[in-house]
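Lesson 9: reading folded outputs for more than one chain in a single document. The general rule is that every protein is listed as its sequence immediately followed by its structure tokens, and records are never interleaved. Here is the first one.
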Amino acid sequence: MIPDINLLPKVDQDDGSPKTIFILIGIITLLLLAVMSWLYFSARVDVVSLEAEEQSLQVERDALQVELTNLQGANQGSLEESVAFAELVSYDVSPLIDTTKALLPSNTYLRNYTFEQSIVSIDIDFETLNMISAYVERLEQNPYFLDVQVDSIANFDVNPTSEEEAEVDRFTEVPRYSATVVLQINDLYLATGGVN
């Protein structure tokens, strides 16, 4: 038999662990570089689109600012123009109030006036529906008003009480009526001071 003689020096073989660590570090570095470059390029695209949007918004803001300046310059008038406009639109309401009060039947209560440019709305409490129709007829014959309309009629109890007392007094008290009457003003007649 032949003896196994190895005259070469004995060298320990590495198990390859440092080489594997370097390969893993290299792969992780490449992945990080790839992610960072993707984030960089996507951020650049976002910056470019946001800059374009900012420029368009600035142009729109400038156009709106010019329009606002034009509108403010057009709407400003002198004090004299404002007074002339107010005198043109305004009218004396005393004859209207006096007329509506004078035409009221007895035992009625005038609650509220609402004036608009050519309309007066009044809220009145009446005892009966016949009083409402008589009052509307008087208003229609008055030259201060072109048209008279009854907007709403509602009944209400004079002294609201508890339900038990209401059942007992239901037939002893007659409810009153609240009416809203809308009057169209005769501007020409009012402007001449009640003279045709």
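And here is the second record, again sequence then tokens.
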Amino acid sequence: MSEKEQWYDNKELHAQITSLSGQIRDLGHEMRETRTMIKQYNGLREKIEVVEDKVEKIEALTEGKKTFAEAIRLWGGWLFALITLVILLIDKF
């Protein structure tokens, strides 16, 4: 094949360029859709993190209340006995 011979004629080149530009346009559209989906995912991820933080705070608060109630249950009798003893000692003197 000599250098003067063309591999493709102008009509074939035009068809290939048109096809390529269509593919590039489609690719650009797909990239925009992908960016939109990524933004939506990031937004959802941020919301999930906020909800996780709230759940952790609620769990910690519930655990604190449970611990406090258990402490009252365990030490309440001793406290009542101490107060009763003090009152009885005051009345005796």
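What the second record shows: The chain is about 90% helix and 0% strand.
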